[in-house]
Structure formats: structure tokens, C-alpha cells
Design a protein that fits this description.
two-stranded antiparallel ribbon; single chain; 12 strands; elongated; endopeptidase fold (from Nostoc punctiforme); about 15% strand; about 290 residues; alpha+beta; Membrane-bound Lytic Murein Transglycosylase D, Chain A
């Protein structure tokens, strides 16, 4: 009875989801104790408290074909932003199969403790609550140490620094999407939009044809090869812009709630040029003018 009274008080003060469960158990035990002193009948053994959500650890989930950031988030009842932030996915919902994804036990983000960090400074940085950080990470009896990973419940990621667009070539180079190398089946000219779209789809486990020609023939070539081609953007789909002599292709990374889309592409003269990867957001109205290879 003493233990459950203490637990009920702590759960209530910390506003934990198990507070009502613990309080009810405390009341039940008190009632049973009073009955035991006046009634000779057998008293049932108290049940172990079962909280509504007991997971406090980080799960490693390996993605499968067809997974997207929103579908993974729904599977584990967390937000898509939590999945993106915890795994440094940037502004993409498209994700390759076989990738290990960290799944937090609650909405928020991960922080690696640096020298000089305190719980309060971390809470301030991410607009979170220091007491909740202590509770979620079981820090009541210990202090934080450099290199330790902390779950920041409902943390808000600071505004990112401007993206530096890096050159990417056949020999490989770094971009915000990681290293991009030429696959054995890539028959497109290095540095061009078609070369990049081929490689990005290979990363996502959704290869496209090696001989679809210039960007303005990709939609018809994809239809002939049995791919679904329509006007509906989706994460991982190839965007086909028929404008210009050669046309242009990119890869949809994310469809926003308002219908805007985020794409990555190469060889866009207005956003970096030849042999450079960039990302940009396209309005919902403009997005509806393109075709998409799924």
C-alpha cells in the first residue's frame, strides 16, 4: 500500500499516462486492506500495474519495399516528423528498403549530448521540458554524459542552416542524400537529370529503365514498360517535365499537406546547374501540371 501510494503521487506529479492506473490501484489496495481486517474470506493477490505505454527504449526498424516515412510513423503511432528528425532524413518521405530506422517511444527527436550540455540547456534548445527529458530518459538517479543519446519529447528542431549543394559525379560525391555513385546499369550521361533520377530510384529500390532516352520521352517509355504514369505525385515517384527540347526529370521526396511537393534533381540551371544535386519545393498548382512515374 505504501509503495502504490508513493507511485500514485509520483505519477500524478509527473503527469504520466499511467497516473490514473496507479491511483486506482492504490484505492483498490486500501479497500482490500480494510476488508481484510473485518472479513476472514480470502483476499485476492494484487495485480501488477500495467501502464498504457511501457516502451521507453529506441527500436531499430529495418525498412521493407513500399515503406515511406508516413507509413512507418503510422505503424508505430508517432509523427512523420519524429521519424525524419530522429534519422536525419531531411525533408524526404521516400526511403529505401533495408535501411535501419530509429523509432522513438514518443514524439520528439534525438540529441547527442555534447560537452557543456545540461538538461536545461538541451530543453531550451529544442523548446522541450527538462522534467520530461529526465523522466523519459530515466535520469532521476544519474547525470548526462558527453556522447549519450537523449530522447527529447515533443522537441522542435532548430531551423536548419542553408543547404550547401555539392557536386556529384561518376566517381561519387556527397550531397544531402548521401553518396551518389553510378550504377552498373546507368546508361545516362553523368551530370544530367536523367542520370540522377536513375540513381535516386536505385537507392529507393525502385529501378527505372536504362534506355528511356531524354527526359521528355521518359513518361511514354515508362508506360510502354508497364509503369503506372499519372498526374498524382507521391514520395519516390519520378516527376517528368515535358518543357524544353530535352525535358527534365526529378524525384519526389515528399508531398506536403497543402499539396506542395518537395523534389530532388540534378542539372537544373536555376538551382545549381550541371552535375549538382539540389532540392526545391513546387506549389500544388504547378505540381499538377507534371506527369509522375510510379
Amino acid at each position: 500500500m505504501v509503495a502504490t501510494d508513493v507511485a500514485a503521487d509520483l505519477a500524478s506529479r509527473a503527469n504520466l499516462p499511467i497516473a490514473d492506473n496507479v491511483a486506482n490501484m492504490s484505492i483498490s489496495l486500501a479497500a482490500k486492506s480494510e476488508l481484510a481486517q473485518t472479513d476472514s474470506s480470502a483476499i485476492t493477490k494484487p495485480q501488477i500495474i500495467q501502464p498504457n505505454s511501457t516502451r521507453t527504449d529506441i527500436i531499430n526498424y529495418v525498412t521493407v519495399q513500399g515503406d515511406t516515412v508516413p507509413s512507418i510513423a503510422a505503424k508505430f503511432s508517432i509523427t512523420a516528423d519524429t521519424v525524419r528528425n530522429a534519422n536525419n532524413l531531411g525533408n524526404t518521405d521516400a526511403i529505401e528498403p533495408g535501411r535501419t530506422i530509429a523509432i522513438l517511444p514518443t514524439n520528439g527527436l534525438l540529441h547527442t549530448v555534447g560537452a557543456g550540455d545540461t538538461v536545461q540547456s538541451i530543453a531550451s534548445k529544442y523548446n522541450s521540458n527538462a522534467d520530461r527529458i529526465v523522466t523519459v530518459n530515466n535520469l532521476e538517479l544519474s547525470s548526462i554524459t558527453a556522447g549519450q543519446r537523449l530522447i527529447i519529447p515533443d522537441g522542435v528542431k532548430p531551423a536548419p542552416a542553408p543547404v550547401v549543394r555539392a557536386a556529384v559525379g561518376v566517381s561519387g560525391g556527397s550531397s544531402r542524400l548521401g553518396n551518389v555513385y553510378a550504377s552498373a546499369g546507368n546508361r545516362y550521361a553523368p551530370g544530367n537529370c536523367t542520370w540522377y533520377a536513375y540513381e535516386r530510384r536505385m537507392q529507393l529500390g525502385r529501378p527505372v529503365g536504362s534506355f528511356w532516352g531524354n527526359a521528355n520521352t521518359w513518361a511514354s517509355s515508362a508506360r510502354a514498360a508497364g509503369y503506372l504514369v499519372n498526374r498524382t505525385p507521391a514520395a519516390g515517384a519520378v516527376l517528368v517535365d515535358m518543357a524544353g527540347y530535352f525535358g527534365h526529370v526529378g524525384v519526389v521526396e515528399r508531398v506536403l499537406a497543402n499539396g506542395d511537393i518537395v523534389i530532388t534533381e540534378m542539372n537544373n540551371l536555376a538551382y545549381g546547374g550541371f552535375n549538382r544535386v539540389n532540392d526545391r519545393t513546387i506549389s500544388a498548382g504547378q505540381a499538377g501540371t507534371y506527369q509522375y512515374i510510379h
